[in-house]
Amino acid sequence: MSETLNADRVTRLCDFLRQSPTPWHATVSMAERLEHAGFQRLEETANWQLMPGQRYYVTRNDSSLIAFQLPAGPLSELRMIGAHTDSPGLHLKPNATQHAAGWLQLGVQVYGGALLAPWFDRDLGLAGRVHIRHGDGQLESVLLNVNRPVAMIPSLAIHLDRDVNAGRSINPQTEMAPVLLQSDTAKLQDLLASWLEEEHGLRAVDVVDFELGFYDVQPPSLVGVNQELLASARLDNLLSCFVGLEALLACDGQQGALLVANDHEEVGSASACGAQGPFLGDVLKRLNAQVGGASEESLIQLIQSSLMISCDNAHGLHPNFRDKHDEQHGPALNAGPVIKINASQRYATNSVTGGLFRDICREAGVPVQSFVTRSDMGCGSTIGPITATEVGVPTIDVGLPQWAMHSVRETAGTHDVEHLACALVGFLNRARLS
């Protein structure tokens, strides 16, 4: 198994995770790597002049990204990889300032299906997007990343709640406001002004609006005697964003290829930049208009000749909770990517797309696993079925197995990073999608 550990790739992954506390930061990080590799930035509000053999990328809402390479000849099919940039977390309310017992706290709302208990007693930073007004009245959007412990949600001592280990529920309205400053008068606006000056040198600006959230500032780490495990925040699903980007940058560039990283998957994908929105469809229409057949019929032909591999992490077999898995479908960490299957179409995989991915893994020398949830348990979903429904592209749902999904700190296998990267490079280089 040791031969599958690519130390350089894992180092790049850890750097990406550190630099990406929010979907906006993740998108910036991916865009910088794409530009360094020669991808040209496109603006959705401008006319596109696409050339065969060239590589481009475009963003929407600054939190979703689509990058693509065009073949030297006609565009008749695309090898697509899908992932999402968002993760569950604690986002600030608009009027977040509140005081209790002589402390400044900030009110939060839960984003997505977060595991709440692991957020207590963590060193929390704050990051996101802030909209400011300059003295001349001009509006500007800037990213903010307070990358140090400025807040904490302290637990209540067990002496004051003897039943806490008996499974007491957590109230996010009354029990999860982070503590920031010992003060009866301080306000969030004052802190934002200080942080904007510190990070961007901005003075005498008004904060008009913001989208900010807390995050655990503990950096990613390799865990285990032989460093078999990677522990980090936001592995779901920045791990897939990273591996998809690595594959796009490493492929031979001979085939039409596309990477889409959507925001808002954790809350249902129903947004202009989410998988249920028109972002991918808009890009495909423009590709078809310029380098495809330029007709509605050719657009349908392009989509139906393509394949989407939707990459979102899977539930790995937990050594302490083996009964939570079907006996025949408990994916092991470091044993390869997982094909996710659900008869009720919570995953988009069918035998055609699943068989093709198995063949891709065979050619790449990569082990592959299957996941089906227990028949007496509910099944989650991801962007795969949504993309297949909205766009119509044949789709398969895969992912790397992990533990503690939706926790503030998740765990995956270090060897699996290389497993999935090799499989996706093989997919993007594959001459035929059949």
CATH hierarchy, class of the largest domain:
Alpha Beta
Rg over CA atoms: 22 Å
Number of domains: 2
Oligomer category? single chain
Instruction: Outline the biggest β-sheet.
Output: 9 strands, mixed
Instruction: Please work out how many helical segments DSSP would assign.
Output: 9
Summarize the model shown.
The chain has 434 residues and is an alpha/beta fold. The chain has two domains: 2-87 and 233-429, Zn peptidases (Aminopeptidase), CATH 3.40.630; 89-216, Aminopeptidase i, Domain 2, CATH 2.30.250. It is built from nine helices and 20 strands.
Could you please describe the fold and organization of this structure?
- With 434 residues, the protein is α/β, with parallel strands linked by helices.
- It folds into 2 domains: 2-87 and 233-429, Zn peptidases (Aminopeptidase, 3-Layer(aba) Sandwich), CATH 3.40.630.10; 89-216, Roll (Aminopeptidase i, Domain 2).
- The chain has helices at 7-19, 23-36, 188-200, 235-250, 279-291, 296-304, 351-364, 383-391, 414-429; strands spanning 40-42, 55-60, 64-69, 79-84, 89-100, 103-111, 124-133, 139-151, 179-181, 206-216, 221-223, 229-232, 257-262, 307-311, 314-315, 338-340, 369-371, 395-399, 401-403, 410-413.
